[in-house]
Prior knowledge:
- The structure holds 2 protein chains of 2 kinds.
- Chain A has 2 domains: about 5-55, no CATH class; about 70-240, Orthogonal Bundle (MetI-like fold).
- By secondary structure, chain A is an all-alpha fold.
- Chain A contains 11 helices and no strands.
- Chain A is about 75% helix and about 0% strand.
- Chain B has helices at about 1-15, 20-55, 70-75, 80-115, 115-130, 135-140, 140-145, 150-160, 175-195, 200-210, 215-240, 245-250, 260-270, 270-295, 300, and strands at about 55-60, 65.
- Chain B is mainly α.
- In chain B, helix 2 (about 20-55) crosses helix 14 (about 270-295) and helix 13 runs antiparallel to helix 14 (about 270-295).
- A two-stranded antiparallel sheet of chain B has the order 1-2.
- In chain B, strand 1 (about 55-60) and strand 2 form a beta hairpin.
- Chains A and B meet through helix 1, helix 3, helix 4, helix 5 and helix 6 of A and helix 1, helix 2, helix 4, helix 5 and helix 6 of B.
Amino acid sequence: MRSKVLKPILAIYTGVFILFLYAPFLVLGVLSFQTGPEGGPQFPIIEWSTYWYRNIFGLTPPSRIAPLPIGESLVRSLTLAFMTMIVSSTLGVMSAQAFRKRFYGSGGVFYLIVLGMMVPGVLVGLGMALIANYAGIERTWWGTAFALHVVYTFPFAFLVMLAIFNRFDASVEEAAWSLGVSPFRTFRKVTFPLIFPGVLSAMLFAFTLSYDEFSRTLFSSGRYLTLPLAIYGTFSVEIHPNVFAFGVLTTLFSFALLSVYAVLMSASVRRARRLVLQEDAS
Amino acid sequence: MSVVTSVNSTAATKPVRVPRRRTGNATAYLLVAPGVIWMLLCLILPIAMMVYVSFWTQTTFKIEPILTTKSWQLFFSSPTYIGALWTTIRIWLIVLASTFVVGYPTALFVGLFVRNKTLSTVLLVLCVIPFWTSFLIRVLAWRPMLGEQGAINIILQFAGIIRQPIEALLFTELSVVIGMTQIYCVFMVGPIAFMLGRIDPNVIEAARDLGAGFGKIFRSIILPLSMPGVVVGAIFVSVMVLGEFATSAALSGRKVNLLGNIIVTQVGSLKWAFAAVAGVVLTFVMAMVVSLFLRIVNLRQEL
């Protein structure tokens, strides 16, 4: 599309739009270096300091501001995200594999799975809490909340794998079958290595969505808080810049995770390319 | 897809293949069964339970499985609950409109004007990066932006546009709308940019050669062809906004009560039956909204 007037205007608009997306976060990052413990979560910056970062790690002398209850909740959230990642990506790969052949009822099953990511967390959370109360099951982060995390992330893993299988060349599998390799062995030795980059993306989706999931966890996790619940707890009381410092740290953690994913991804792509080269050479 | 059809057609012509196909189907059912069972137990059953409990008898301390419509009557006779219903619908409509208005020009630029593949990918990635921060932190980040001594007021005062800080920015309905718009507009930009990227440039070129101005091209080519993207984005935004409670809790100072907030407070005071009623109402509203959108555009045909 060529346009002399419109294109620059839209380009500027897009720049402003991206600023709109990032501005709150920049402000948050700046304010996280507010002095403490007397500095509040607003401008002006009284004095630049790393007080609130030290406060998170419990390195500051005790003051009237309690440190964020993050230690144990962080461990819980990571464990929960890891469990969810394993189960959701397994279910996602299995279901997507099933969808490579059309079977009776596949349309209904598709909508049932996708429903899991559409239904608001507050509703399934409430329903799950009601069931737990009724059946006398104790609500725990590793039980009821975990079940809901899978309900939420499994559809994402499923859709990612569906897209991967859509572009998958089935002739290599057929070659293995015609050589008499059992279906299970074929999947392990041929199919799985080829879809592995997709599985990695599905795992990344499941992990990050579960790690950040909050509305489903709120009613279903019971006594012990996950990390997002601990942050939510600070909403009702006065907020301090330690929440901001913590936000900066979690973002850095997310980027670290993203880099690990990028490294693994490029490694698997490189290995696939090397295999192709070997085939060409021989 | 071609594999599926080829398997089916060979099976149809050669009856010998039929038993093999049946085993293939059995494998498919076995593979899909765990996922389906999980969804039935942890998604459908909880929703059904919610509908069931909304008819239970609620007393101050507990609920009993004696069926009654009392909670429903209370919901629809209480101005607080009805007010929450209307607030939810109002906020939903405003945020839907604002995400569309704010997001469409960006989608137009990324999807249609940027012909460089790398640049459009970079722009989309830039839009997605904020999602790597916790949702709650992103909501909370608006407080130092909008507050009386917040960044926006300071900048506006510094620029001499205003003298007194604008107090209406934080802890009002406006702050909730601003926060939600920022958090959800990317879900509008993505699908629209995707649909715009699929428009054949020759069609626009042809319209231009025939003497159509940009306004005419936009109205009769670009907008209609991007409609499926708009509908998908609108469904995403609607479902998320209708189920919201954290943004309104954090940015409205408890002044804006959505149905989600009602559910949270009712659960907090162990009024399970009322919470269930609010939940069923919310489910109903959401189902209506989604089916309405699906009626506007036949997604299966368009995508």
